[in-house]
Design brief:
Elements (H helix, E strand, L loop, with lengths): L9 E6 L8 E6 L2 E8 L2 E6 L14 E7 L5 E11 L6 E3 L15 E2 L1 E5 H9 L4 E2 L5 H5 L6 E6 L9
Parallel strand pairs: 1-10
Antiparallel strand pairs: 1-11, 2-3, 3-4, 4-8, 5-6, 6-7, 9-11
Bound molecules: FE2/S2 (inorganic) cluster (FES).
Protein name: 3-phenylpropionate/trans-cinnamate dioxygenase ferredoxin subunit
Keywords: 2Fe-2S, Dioxygenase, Iron, Iron-sulfur, Metal-binding, Oxidoreductase
GO molecular function: 2 iron, 2 sulfur cluster binding; dioxygenase activity; metal ion binding; monooxygenase activity; oxidoreductase activity, acting on paired donors, with incorporation or reduction of molecular oxygen
């Protein structure tokens, strides 16, 4: 049962098609800024705060890992994707937030799920799902059946929603 004082831990970010591949949206949920990314059709979310010195991490670049065993032989590993901090270029794995510079340092990755309109509407009706406040609220008030929705959880996560 939800009380007036209960804080939501899951939020509707928007329709899947509102964040196309290669795009991101930075939203606010429970007073925290969170970046939601569509990387090659998979959705990821990360707290918009670098664990090094607090930079707005989600404003950084999205890059793949580059591997080289010998000079001149360079391969792009599209299976490993990193978010690059705009301050000092440290890279954080979008799957688990782990830093490739310092494996003991982690950015906060959050779970993202894709849910159907019926499921989202029912959870909204039960008060189990919050809406992201701000300029996008109007876009997500009407839940339509022909769309899937991006649902963000503030609990720790691994992996991205596909
Ligand atoms: S603040 Fe992000 S790497 Fe330094």
């Amino acid at each position: 049962m939800t009380t007036a004082h209960a804080r939501q831990t899951r939020f509707v970010v928007g329709r899947v098609e509102e964040i196309p591949p290669g795009e991101r949206r930075i939203v606010e949920a429970n007073g925290r800024e969170i970046g939601v990314f569509n990387i090659g059709g998979r959705f990821y979310a990360m707290l918009n705060r670098c664990p090094h010195l607090g930079a707005p991490l989600c404003e950084g670049g999205v890059v793949n890992q580059v591997e080289s065993t010998v000079p001149g032989d360079v391969r792009l590993d599209t299976g490993k994707t990193y978010l690059t901090c705009p301050y000092h270029n440290w890279e954080f794995d979008v799957e688990d937030g782990r830093s490739s510079w310092n494996p003991r340092l982690r950015a906060r990755a959050l779970p993202v799920a894709l849910e159907g309109a019926d499921e989202v509407q029912a959870a909204l009706d039960r008060g189990e799902l919050g809406r992201i406040p701000g300029p996008y609220t109007a876009e997500i008030v009407d839940v339509s059946v022909e769309s899937d929705y991006i649902v963000l959880s503030l609990r720790p996560a691994r992996g991205g929603a596909k």
